[in-house]
Structures are given as structure tokens and as C-alpha cells.
Task: structure prediction
Amino acid sequence: MATLSTTEILSDVLDAFKIRFPMLNSIGTDFSSETAVLNQQMIARIPSLPTVRDYDGTSGYEANAANANDLLVDVPVILNRHKHVPVKIDYIEQLSTRRDLYKEATGNLAYTLGKEAFDHAMSLVLAANFSESSIFANVDADKDMLSSVNKKMNQRGAAPVGRFGIVNSDVFEVLENDSRISSGDYHDQRKKGNAYGHLSNVAGFSNIYEYPDLPANAQNLSAFFSDRTGIVMASRLPNDPEAMANRLGIPPICGAEIVTDGETGLSLMGLTWQKSGTFDLYATIIWVYGISAGSQGGSAGDLTDFGGHRVVTA
Result:
């Protein structure tokens, strides 16, 4: 039977994580392999766009130069979620079958980690955090709705690049049936191999994702549109228990590995240990994260409030 290292498992979970939840790549992120403690506040720095200027005959290229620090939006994020997914090692080492149980297992680990984080992010899409909203019945959630929301975001100064949308299945069905989106003469975007719909480069939005589990949040929420600042996620790693034991001269009871994704900076920690008595082998994948949404309960326009726009049915 093949033997898998914790590093291999972590690397494959990271790869699957990006595939199963691509919408997490649309929000603002501050991922790092640094350690932090639960409930620690971080300042996530999200880049904004500079302004194009005319050449100045007197000052040359220096005129109206943007300060580099002003091109970064500081967003406070509290790392208040310490989550992990524990499994038995033999569960992901059953490779003696025609089914690729290892790929299925790592995909499921990535899915549960990503879904927990994304569901939490969407639970924060509330009127208390995002003051901007539009009312559209599901049957009216077509391209005209997208254009209307995009216009309102323009008027509120949302970043023009990298906007995205998360919509429930009822809204996506209407969007997909709009001939201005699905027709081959226009955008020609329809569901294909993936059961969850995805539109790209439509009506000012780089990506629009169907998410059947989008919560109504007791506010009739049916869709959420945002630039990268509307929702900001920061993640860090907990302290390495193996390293802590070594520093104190105590024999460690677990092994620890850390893997970082070179593209996103997302880092996960893997712990492995053997249960005394039964000799069962266990592994768990860990991260600590927090999410900031809009004004964080403040007044209209505070923090990144105008980066997001809610669509409700009533």
C-alpha cells in the first residue's frame, strides 16, 4: 500500500481547495504562513487602483503621483475562527481500488474547509454591514439587473476592476435564460460540465458564481455583488505544538507540517498523531482565519461598505 506524507496531503488539499471554491479568489485576501493567536486583530492591506495622469510640462512625470501607501486600503480583521478537519490516516490511504479514494478524500477535505469559510462570509452580508441594496424579484434578475447594480456601484466609487457576484440558483437560472447572456451572438455562456453555474465578464462583473446555499439571512438576500474590498479574509497559522514541545524539552506527541500555496499565499498546517492504546493514526488540517464585511456594523460608507451591494427580493 502506498504511503502518503502529511506534506503531500496538504499540497493536494490546497490544490483542490482552489478548484472547489474559486469564488474565494475573488474576495480580498491577506493570507500568510505567519502564526497568530485566536482573536488577534490583523490589519489586512488590500490594493486599490492608482489614477492615470496627463504628462505635466513643468513637473514631468512626478505631477500628482499617488503615494504608494494610499493605494492600500487597511481593513481590520479579527482572527476569530480556528477550524480543522480531522480524519483517520487509513481513510486516505485506501488506494487498492479502482476508485481514486485519495483524490475523493482530499477533494472532500478541501470542500468542507472552503464551504465553512464561505458560508461564514455570506452570513455577514447583512444590511448592518452593507448599506447599498437593490430590490429585484427573482424573475426579474436578468442582465438589466446586473447593469443596474453595476451602475449603482459605479456611483458609489466601487473599484471598476475585479467585481464579482454570488447569486442563488433562482437568480442564476434567470441570468442563464437571458438571451443577452446565453446567446451565441452575445456572451454565449451556459452551464456545461459543472453543475454550479459560472459567468465571466458580463455587465461589468469579472465573475458571477451560482451558490445554491446562499443564505437569505432573514433579509430576503438573493445575490451579492462586490469588489475585492467588500469582503476581506485574513488567515494565519496556529502555533506549532511540535515546535513548542521541543522548545520546552518535552517529547512531542504529534508531528506538524506546513504547506503554503505559492500563488495565493494560503497556508495550512497538518498535524498527525497516534492514539495510545488503539494505535490508530489520525491527521487534521488546520487554519485560523477571520473575515471583515463592509462597515462591520458601522455607519453607511464606513470602512469598505460601498465595496459591496446586496440584492434582495423584498
The CA atoms of residues 134 and 149 lie 7 Å apart. Helices lie at 6-20, 101-123, 143-155, 169-177, 179-182, 241-247.
